[in-house]
Amino acid sequence: MPKLYEYLGLVVFFYANEHEPVHVHCRKENRESRAELILVDGKVAEIRLTGVRGKLPLTDREARDFQTLVEHFSGEIVQKWIDFFVLHKAISSENIARRLT
User: Fold this and answer.
1) Alpha-carbon distance 84 to 96, whole Å?
2) Which residue from 17, 36, 70, 73 could staple onto 23, CB 3.0 to 4.6 Å apart?
3) By 3-state DSSP, what share of the chain in percent is helix, strand and coil, each rounded to 5?
4) Rounded to whole angstroms, how far apart are CA atoms 33 and 66?
């Protein structure tokens, strides 16, 4: 379970056995949601937040913070997906200490 980011108590990560489309999971306490990054011609065209079967979803505030993080780092998330799942490279985690706008 490679961790990508820690942000405002949220942990954003990939499961090690993921599948397309490109997406990340976000967990806080016992809640979890995921964000799918929809690519068109190699660029992020849309971000879709969804629940995770069998898990409580993030609160509305947590989901907004997760959405903001994914929007801000979408290109980097896609690159980390390629590095980890396609190129089999290690990826590093980042702790984001400031609120993103």
Assistant:
1) 21
2) 36
3) 25, 40, 35
4) 9
Give, in degrees to the nearest 5, the angle at Cα 80 between 99 and 65: 25
Residue 50, both tokens: 């969804």
Instruction: Please tell me whether the overall predicted TM-score, pTM, comes out greater than 0.85 for this model.
Output: yes
Taking the C-alpha atoms of residue 81 and residue 54, their distance in angstroms, rounded to an integer, is 24
Q: Average pLDDT across each block of 10 residues of the chain; the chain has 101 residues. List them in order.
A: 94 86 94 95 93 95 97 95 93 94 82
Measured distance CA(92)–CA(94) in Å, rounded: 7
Q: What is the DSSP letter of 55?
A: S
Q: Which of 19, 22, 21 is nearest to 4 (CA)?
A: 22
Residue 75 burial by Cβ neighbours in a 10 Å radius (0-12, 13-18, 19+): exposed
